[in-house]
Design goal:
The complex is a heterodimer. By secondary structure, chain A is α+β, with helices and mostly antiparallel strands. In chain A, about 15% of the residues lie in helices and about 30% in strands. Chain A contains three helices and 13 strands, in the order αβαββββββββββββα. Classes of the chains: A alpha+beta, B alpha+beta.
């Protein structure tokens, strides 16, 4: 680590601690609060081609039982491992609830492991990662701005993401997250989760996201995990608006998921 | 402890992935059971987050009962070739479904067979083919 980086890291660490983003042994990250932006200016001509529609490869859970290196499992601290175990036991017993049921967003980073369609809109100063499911949009600012000052950060479903380009690789730094789950297994991350990503197109039909989650509250060490997205064969498909509340018949009941049928509604009248 | 948990997780794989691509948990549907219900379309709600098909079923005593079947939302159904007008009120159909565990007349549709033998697969559009 160079002296400059050390100074920057120290400053970033102090600033984060002061606000609550306690990232012990924080590595210097481009654009972290207080750091001088290092993003190089992207031009329209230099933007890579990520056009088309994409869908996640693999399953919607970060499956701990899989030997596939792309599906690692977060190194949870014992108390969070225990919470995860309880969700698993409840699911075996047929008791399961997912916040998506209430039309809440998947949120970041969970949205990285959600199905349905996705598309990327690239501009020199901003990247939008658009998800079909419940219209979730990640805005990644690549105009060189830093994260907002600590006293303007608050828990957001997608967090606050800034990025820069290293050749054809989009490097993203996300803070300001809500406490949430990585997937339906209920493995939890805290508000202090800090996520860095290296996103690039590895071949004509595959975009890869190398993800590192640091979370001093729930993880014993940084979690490195990779997700891949495949291009859809049919370019004529489209993403439509997903208005989740228009006819949601799923409800939370007795700690699990239930359905309200039209006949149930009539009885209530 | 960790390895035991991981093993438990393996066992529970179905619990989480049974309705893996559905919007909500699949806990209320019994994936180990299938029902086949014949009836007449009352209403087809092409809605988010899930579409619902309500059908009227007449039993041998002439009693009419309403059954409801959940399917994916419009975007996935469209990719499955199921359009808003694909199931019209009054149309006779047969629905194969995973029923609700609690015995109420509803389920998650596996497929729908129309009177002319056409089979609609509401799950086909969940994962469109990739390049």
């Amino acid at each position: 680590m160079t002296d400059r980086k050390f100074v920057v890291a120290s400053f970033v660490g102090l600033a984060a601690l002061a606000w609550g983003f306690a990232t012990a042994e924080t590595k210097p990250v481009a654009g972290a609060p207080g750091e001088k932006p290092t993003a190089t200016k992207m031009t329209w001509d230099a933007l890579p081609d990520w056009s088309g529609l994409w869908t996640m490869e693999g399953r919607i859970i970060f499956d701990s039982s899989s030997k596939d290196p792309h599906r690692e499992f977060p190194p949870l601290k014992p108390e969070y491992e225990a919470k995860y175990a309880k969700v698993v036991q409840d699911a075996i017993a047929g008791k399961e609830f997912d916040p998506l049921t209430q039309c809440l967003p998947a949120g970041f980073p969970r949205v990285l492991a959600e199905p349905f369609l996705q598309e990327f809109v690239l501009r020199p100063e901003q990247v939008w990662w658009i998800h079909e499911q419940q219209n979730e949009i990640r805005r990644i600012y690549t105009d060189g701005r830093p994260h907002p000052p600590a006293d303007e950060l608050y828990p957001l479903w997608e967090g606050h993401s800034i990025g820069h380009w290293e050749g054809d690789t989009l490097v993203v730094d996300t803070v300001s997250l809500r406490e949430g789950i990585y997937d339906r297994t209920g493995a939890i991350h805290s508000e202090q989760a800090h996520v860095t990503e290296r996103i690039r197109k590895i071949d004509a039909n595959t975009i890869e996201d190398q993800i590192v989650v640091e979370d001093p509250v729930t993880l014993t060490k940084p979690w490195h995990v990779t997700k891949r997205y495949k291009k859809l064969a049919d370019p004529s498909l489209r993403i439509d608006h997903w208005a989740c509340e228009e006819d949601n018949r799923a409800v939370f009941k007795n700690g699990s998921t239930d359905i309200v049928l039209p006949s149930d509604r009539e009885k209530k009248r | 402890m960790r390895s035991i948990l991981r093993y438990t997780f393996l066992l529970s794989g179905l619990a989480f992935t049974g309705g893996a691509l559905a919007h909500h948990s699949f806990a209320m549907f019994d994936r180990n059971k299938e029902v086949t219900i014949k009836g007449t379309v009352k209403q087809f709600n092409y809605t988010n987050p899930h579409s619902w098909l309500d059908i009227l079923v007449t039993d041998e005593k002439g009693q009419v009962k309403e059954w409801s079947f959940e399917m994916e939302g419009p975007s996935s159904l469209m990719r499955s070739g199921i359009k808003p007008g694909s199931l019209k009120p009054g149309e006779k159909i047969t629905v194969k479904a995973w029923p609700l565990r609690d015995g109420r007349p509803a389920g998650a549709a596996i497929n729908i067979v129309k009177e002319d033998g056409t089979v609609l697969d509401p799950r086909r559009g969940l994962r469109p083919p990739t390049s």
